Amino acid sequence: MNYGPAEMMIVSMARLLRNGERVFHGVASPLPMIAIQLAKRLHAPDLVYLNIPGGVDASPHRLPTSTVDSLLVENSSSLFSLTEIFDLSARGGLDTAFISGVQIDLYGRINLSCIGDFKQPKVRLTGGAGSAVILPTAGRVILWRTKHNPKVFVKKCDFITAKGNVERVITPLCIFRREKGRLVLESIHPYSNLKEVIQETGFPIESRKEYSITKEPEDGELTILNQIDPMRVRDLEFK
Amino acid sequence: MNYGPAEMMIVSMARLLRNGERVFHGVASPLPMIAIQLAKRLHAPDLVYLNIPGGVDASPHRLPTSTVDSLLVENSSSLFSLTEIFDLSARGGLDTAFISGVQIDLYGRINLSCIGDFKQPKVRLTGGAGSAVILPTAGRVILWRTKHNPKVFVKKCDFITAKGNVERVITPLCIFRREKGRLVLESIHPYSNLKEVIQETGFPIESRKEYSITKEPEDGELTILNQIDPMRVRDLEFK
Amino acid sequence: MKEGKVVSLKEAVSWIDDGSVVALGGNILNRCPSAFVREIARQGKRGLEIVKTAGAYDIDLLCAAGCVSKVHAGFVSFENEFGLAPNYRRLVEEGKVEACEHACYTVISALRAAAYGIPFQPVAGLNGSDLPRVRGMKRIRNPYGRGAIYVVERLQPDWAIIHVNESDSRGNARIYGPQFEDILMSRAAKNVILTAEHIVEGERLMEHPEMNQIPHFLVRGIVHLPGGAAPCGCYPYYEVDREGVKRYLEYCSKGTGVKEYLMEVSP
Amino acid sequence: MKEGKVVSLKEAVSWIDDGSVVALGGNILNRCPSAFVREIARQGKRGLEIVKTAGAYDIDLLCAAGCVSKVHAGFVSFENEFGLAPNYRRLVEEGKVEACEHACYTVISALRAAAYGIPFQPVAGLNGSDLPRVRGMKRIRNPYGRGAIYVVERLQPDWAIIHVNESDSRGNARIYGPQFEDILMSRAAKNVILTAEHIVEGERLMEHPEMNQIPHFLVRGIVHLPGGAAPCGCYPYYEVDREGVKRYLEYCSKGTGVKEYLMEVSP
After folding, report:
1. Facing C147 at nearest CB: one of D113, D119, D210
2. Residue in D92, D105, D235 closest to B70 by CB
């Protein structure tokens, strides 16, 4: 079956999720929203899905275009508010969180605040939402970003909005794993190559020798992904 | 109509309450529970009544013998938990609280913790419940105690469980008002007299000249009191 | 049912002084007090400090209308479909609005400090972030053991403006579905104004007092505003009006857009 | 419906190690996990630290049975009708149980610190009380301005034992009526055990997820115990069994009373 970066990224995210663990995504997070539903349909039916509207294990009748939409309380087993989710993470009870970054550096630190100076920014960005608390407190953080170029994957963030327990970074080209505090190339997606990854990454790619090729999305994975997201909400992140 | 100390105390408490204010009583507080209902039936229909089970403006079909009974959420307009009541008081939003004391000193400080040393008590008492937070943070505190003798109204508390914004103290014999940090005699109940109050009080009675005689409970007050408390729950505090 | 604390939109907005700290209920495009916010803009309030974990339309519109001096928030944007908040972004870049960026949890913690009557609230996390440095968040020693922890300063809104599903005329109110940080805001703020889809009989709300998350005695006034969250959604009554959001953004992309937008949209 | 996390009373109690910190839900004689507490006594646990804002039967019985080393509470007594808690009182006076007296709000604040993942929680009040001195509560400076404030140390229960009206077999649970501090306890504790009047279908609870105050993923085990709060009451099913409370107190007034009492009462 056909697939592109969106499908490759979602499937990569879903594969990382474990049955039974507590997983959170926040605002502006279509890919994680879809990846969580996919993981629940595949290998992780008892994954505990937490989101900002507060639905626990929500299973909405259709996917919203906003990932804080009230649809994300549909068919929940209880309500567990954003405040509660932060508390849970703060006390060590959140296993996995998905966070994005406008800039991401070699150490997995992210910038969601500003380009240029914080007080007199060239570009004021969205702000880091909960990331400055989630990155240091969640069991692990999976970063993702739907653009892979040297402006995103930078030598140095203009501002460090958050730093912490980043485990992996999912991009349209590859997957990074964090080892000894630094991002190392874990695998390159089948349609990309090492040259492209190096060219599009602003920080040096370490440990080149050990990377692999990301396993292609399987037909079964793609079939269920399309059932979950027939309207292609996932494409919103690639506009 | 006939009345005794219970009625005199309840009516005295009720008269102090103002329409619209937020009033709280805690555990083991039959007289305040009844006084609040009385005030709401008399001059303070919009008094906001708060209690530990969390009923706002509860109007139970019968009075419980315990003042943390779940009956005290009946006919409430919302639930506002004990935690919320403490928060409210902490931020300056609780107008009036009723608190009792096993020992009460000249400064309106109370002991609910122990007779003798705290660590090796002669008598371990109930503990102060919320008093150590309520006394300093509530707008005013009305103390009451159904025994008036030198063991209750003491020169020196064995232990200061709480100190704070005590405004008045209602006893079976009299009403004290706190002025410049000290309890002064405001009025003596009609069936008692100055000699008895002095004899039964362990601290010196100040400003004797200005005290008055407490106004007797009126028939209207007693009629409604008996409607509210036909089973004489109020007598529990005098056993 | 026009009795009790129910007032007109104009009157309720007139209570808000220039320079006030105003917490806005809802989240991004969900259950925001949009009609109230537009009336704030029409009355030309100035120097407001806005408090919200994550906002979009409401914050952007108030910025565009020149009402805002500071925004205390964790996230300000319309998310993927509609992009960045154009006026907020521009005015922060021009130095006309101060972005008091918070982690969403530090907004919550600062509101907790207000609700709990304490000057500051300890908060987990923030290690390694530049936010504490640029925002002046202090780190203090744990007096009970090793280590230190960040504490955020109390942030007490003068007003919390909350759009609810149902309220009675005294202010006993209900939110159905996601509550976001609204209940905490109602406790943290000095005063609460509700805008309500429905003004209902108190007797009906009393049948389930445990569902009335906002008690009457915290509420100063109620404005009856059916559809008052639009173009944001109000679960379960109506979803986000995506055309309405686009129309706002289109007006903004013109020069004097927001004034014209406010003339077109009612209330 | 005996599936999922539903276990026997014996098994659930067997999980609790000697020396554990155990928070008990309910308040005084309302919705206490009484049957669970009796099984703790029967299994002869030792050195438990009990956490509760205000307790009576449950704390007193555990003290009588020799299970308790410390009681962290604001108030321990049966109120006016039944008087002081006789065993708690005696054992504290004999130096066999330590009364770690709290203001109820400092129990709440210490539990908040645990729920919020922070080492301490600032708390308003306490000025002029002897409690901070004898209990070692610290006062710290406000780093954002003048003044100082008391902070209480985190108190994280190993277990919260909560008697609920309804639970499904996964632990999604509901309390009807007064919740007291139970929801906070469920967040503050490392593990939660529910005792439930009714084990119900999850599908029914999902019809109103907003009423399920305890989410399944916080719950380790559920014991089906209809009447499990007795002689305490469980709103709205049954009131306090005043004869039952009297019977407990009568047994206690004899010498080896609690052992006999535990043999008579079931479960």
Report:
1. D119
2. D235
Q: DSSP strand E in B46-164: where?
A: 48-50, 96-100, 103-104, 110-111, 114-116, 121-124, 140-144
Name every residue whose Cβ is closer than 8 Å to that of residue B20 and which is 6 or more positions away in sequence.
B44, B46, B47, B48
Cα distance between residue A209 and residue C119, in whole Å: 54
Structural contact between residues A126 and C83, judged by C-beta atoms closer than 8 angstroms: no
Q: Answer yes or no: are the C-beta atoms of B36 and B217 closer than 8 Å.
A: no
SS3 B153: strand
Provide, rounded to the nearest whole percent, the portion of chain D with pLDDT above 90.
95
The edge-to-edge listing of strands for the beta sheet with A96-100 is A48-50, A22-25, A96-100, A140-144, A166-170, A174-179, A182-188, A212-213
- The pLDDT assigned to B210 comes to 85
Report the C-alpha gap between B27 and B13 in whole angstroms.
17
- Return phi, psi of residue C51, to 5°: -120, 125
Looking at residue C167, the DSSP 8-state letter turns out to be E
Nearest Cα residue in chain A from D187 = A88
Which site among C68, C76, C91, C105 would you substitute to test the A interface, given the most A Cβ atoms closer than 10 Å to its Cβ? C105
Q: What is the mean pLDDT of residues B220-225?
A: 98
- Angle, nearest 10°, between helix axes A219-228 and A5-16? 100
Alpha carbon B167 to its chain centroid, in Å, reads 11
Helix axes D57-64, D34-42, angle to 10 degrees: 0
Residue of D nearest to A137 (CA): D117
Q: Would you give the end-to-end CA distance of chain C in angstroms?
A: 20
CA distance A140 to A144: 13
Cβ separation A66–C81 shorter than 8 A: yes
User: How many angstroms away from the CA of A75 is the closest CA of chain D?
Assistant: 7
Phi, psi of C210 (to 5 degrees): -70, -15
Cβ separation D105–B81 shorter than 8 A: no
Q: How far is CA A5 from the centre of its chain?
A: 13
- The closest alpha carbon to C31, from C253, C245, C259, C238, belongs to C238
Selected for mutation to probe chain B from D59, D88, D101 (highest B CB count within 10 Å) is D101
Of C218, C211, C223, nearest in space to C267 by CA = C223
In this structure, are residues B121 and B165 in contact, taking their beta carbons and an 8 Å threshold? no
Helix (H, G, I), strand (E, B) or coil at D67: coil
Residue D22 pairs in a beta bridge with: D50, D159
Over the stretch D106-148, which tens digit does the pLDDT of each residue have?
999 999 999 999 999 999 999 999 999 999 999 999 999 999 9
Identity of residue B12 = S
**Which residue has tokens 């939409």?**
A69
- Per-residue tokens: A219: 């037909």
- The closest CB to that of A121, out of C92, C106, C181, belongs to C92
CB contact under 8 A, B67 and D180: no
Q: How many CB atoms lie within 10 A of CB D71?
A: 27
Beta strands in chain D (DSSP E): 21-24, 48-55, 68-76, 98-101, 120-123, 138-141, 148-153, 159-167, 173-174, 191-199, 219-224
pLDDT digits (tens, 9 = 90+) for A69-86: 999 999 999 999 999 999
Q: What would the pLDDT profile of B149-207 be if each residue is shown by its tens digit? A: 999 999 999 999 999 999 999 999 999 999 999 999 999 999 999 999 999 999 999 75
A195 in helix, strand or coil? helix
In angstroms, the Cα distances linking D125 to B83, B111, B113, B131, D221 are 14, 16, 17, 9, 37
State how far the Cα of D193 lies from the Cα of D177, in Å rounded to an integer.
20
Q: Across chain A, what does the average pLDDT equal?
A: 96
Q: Which residues of B touch D31 (CB under 8 A)?
A: 70
DSSP-H helix ranges across C44-135: 57-64, 79-82, 86-93, 104-115, 131-135
